[in-house]
What does this fold into?
Amino acid sequence: MFHGGILSKLKNFYKWYVLGLVSVGYILGELGHYLIGTTSKVTAEDLHYGDKSCMLNATHLHLNQLPVVCEKVNSSDICESLTLNGTRYCEWGYNGLGIDYQVLAGPAYMAVFTVVGVILGVAADKYNRARILSICTAVFVVAILLMGTVTEYWHLVLLRMVMAAGESGCNPLATGILTDLFPEHQRALVLSIFNWGIYGGYGIAFPVGRYIPELNAWGLSWRLCYYATGVVGILIAILTFLTLREPARTTIGEEDAGNTKGGDSTVESGKKMPQVTIWHVIAQPRILLLCIAASIRHCGGMCFAYNADLYYRDYFPDVDLGWWLFAVTVGIGSVGVVVGGVISDKIVSKMGVRSRVLVLALSQLIATLPAFGSVAFGPLWAMITLAFSYFFAEMWFGIVFAILVEIVPLAVRSTTVGVFLFVMNNIGGNLPILVDPVSKAIGYRESIMIFYAGFYGISSIIFFLTMFLMDGQVEKQPETTDKPSGLDNRAFTQDEIPVRSGRVNDDSRL
It folds into this structure.
């Protein structure tokens, strides 16, 4: 008994260890992903890509002291002639923006991330997820490490593509593993903690990308950011390979509830049932609408992620907001992620999966107005409204995937997550490239308002409409002694579409 008790405690600890391990790996992957946004100016100066502009080069001066604001000058000759008390305070150089940067940050990464993510999602439904995840981790951390060695713009593009290939497996693989390790009442919280890795990596990128290049330790400047991230990542990749084990695959959500309704609900004697495919699943209106809403919301988040540091540097060059941005994205964002997961888990037992969508819709609606404030106000109120917006906005990601895995059959769960990410990242990850042409037409600030805050509001409306396509609370029957434990690694009979009178039963739900 003592031995069994110890093993039980260790088993309970192991699942939290797995959550911590895959979350740290995801944080490092996202740090490598978003470092380009916070190091772009010094990287562009070194590798010579993107736009040039007039920029303030005297950090001790404030904008209200300047006779002419540097950023309003469009000529290199005029820029370099501006002086204050006989001292030149502007410089003409690469600003880290432009179509080269937008391609590097978005499409170059997303083109590979989305395609390989689908392939790995399919593989995850058939092969050992733990082994595939350890290989993916090794691929993206080595790519991050090598990004510190580049000497040409195209080197950086190529390595971001390799990094994207490795990181694309993190979400579908880890989501499947964590879903099988944790029960329903912890699922949204656990997936929120894991998916916080996106915001953790993004938030950490602000101080790392702003201040480490300024130290110029060993003459490495921005390259040290990638070297340090890569070295830590290698340690995580080794631990993932040595300690992560494939858990038993479990039925959950609607699928598991379907098991309690009777053994004859999905199988007819003497008839061969058609196998559920990924196309049956993704063709459901509720999944299509959920994907559209998530794609639009993702565009808003990615637009801000790729442009926040450059935006605040451009509009407030005399104010250092690096640590403020870190505190808001990591600190406030973390609280929002956890609160969203807890609220979703608490009320799901009362309203079913529909409650999770309600939390999504309301959180994004509340976040929209302060999101506008974060780009409309000055530095102080921009950070205050950003903090308020971030608290509610960052509830969304973990809840979306908790919804998805609960309405998708086990046999195609990881594949569905991969396809969902493919669509979401192709739309949400590539639309921010429009920021550059739109900003040249109506202004950088106005462009950010549209693609960042505006898309928050649109997504909240579509999430709300999606709620009406979801099932309410599913009443589960008491388990009988002859009921299977719910653990299986095969394609389940409950995943199959019942056939009656030679046609698909219209009352069946996937």
